[in-house]
Amino acid sequence: MTNTIDYQEKTLSNRTLLSFGLVFSALIFSITSFFLTFTGFYYVIIALKWGTGFAALALAFNTVNILRKKTLDPSTLTQAAYAALMLSVLCLPWLLCTSLVLAVL
After folding, report:
1. Mind giving me the DSSP string for 47-60?
2. Which of 2, 9, 7 lies closest to 76, judged by CA?
3. Distance between terminal CA atoms of the chain?
4. DSSP 8-class letter at 42
5. Residues 60 and 81 sit within 8 Å (Cβ to Cβ)
């Protein structure tokens, strides 16, 4: 009974919410990296922000691929998955710019 439509939608919505959470975590880590520039935690924060950024991108891309295979009609879940994908794609240039600014400092 694990292949019901409700279970699949719940799983995909959880993946979408996790992707949103990873994007916002990456943004918070990038802002935090400005405050921890000259401390010992700087490299840990850099690794965390890039790791969460790429994990959000991979998870959002995978969720959109699953949704494209299952349904063709636009739904709220599909639109949320595309929004998570766009946010994760737009998050990467932000992370790159903050890393470049911190490298100059």
Report:
1. HHHHHHHHHHHHHH
2. 9
3. 56
4. H
5. yes
| Angstrom distances, CA of residue 74 to CA of 6, 9, 14, 68 | 17, 14, 18, 10
Assign 29 to helix, strand or coil: helix
Which one, of 2, 97, 101, 94, lies nearest residue 56 by Cα? Answer: 94
Q: Where are the alpha helices (DSSP H) in the chain?
A: 5-35, 42-70, 76-104
With b for 16 or more beta-carbon neighbours within 10 A and e for fewer, the 80-95 pattern comes to bbbebbebbeebbebb
User: Model confidence over 39-97: pLDDT tens digits?
Assistant: 888 888 889 999 999 999 999 999 888 888 876 567 788 888 889 999 999 999 999 99
Contact partners, residue 60, CB within 8 Å, separation at least 6: 16, 19, 23, 81, 84, 85, 87, 88
pLDDT per residue as tens digits for the range 12-26: 888 889 999 999 999
